[in-house]
Design a protein that fits this description.
Layout: E1 2-6, H1 11-27, E2 31-35, H2 43-53, H3 66-70, H4 78-87, E3 96-98, E4 103-105
Parallel strand pairs: 1-2
Antiparallel strand pairs: 1-3, 3-4
């Protein structure tokens, strides 16, 4: 089963979801869609995704968002960045797809295809 943290207003997120759905249809697996702006991630979920992505908090953030600058997050600690993402869902990079053990940021959308390469 796959989970996508999705923003339906984002073209990259929609493209990633389409690719994911196409792939899982062939393998008869399920996709859970979480609109993370409506159902924000908490600290633990963010930490879990960071571990699955094997990246730092800054790599999982939308650093060009006005909120990043407004919250003065340049040079912030991992904990501060995680708190910012938990408190301001818009700062989370999108889309993120996970299979429960590994996660991928769908930028470009084709990144999601690595889940299906044997």
């Amino acid at each position: 089963m796959y989970t996508i943290y999705h923003n339906p207003r984002c073209s990259k997120s929609r493209q990633t979801l389409a690719l994911l759905e196409e792939q899982v249809q062939q393998t008869k697996q399920a996709v859970t869609i979480i609109e993370y702006l409506k159902s924000p991630l908490d600290h633990e979920q963010i930490k879990q995704l960071l571990a699955q992505l094997n990246c730092s908090a800054i790599e999982m953030m939308r650093t060009k968002e006005a909120e990043f600058t407004e919250q003065n997050l340049k040079g912030a600690s991992e904990d501060e960045l995680i708190n910012a993402m938990a408190n301001t869902a818009k700062l989370v990079e999108r889309p993120i797809v996970t299979d429960g053990s590994k996660a991928i940021i769908g930028r470009p959308p084709e990144n999601v295809l690595s889940f299906f390469k044997g």
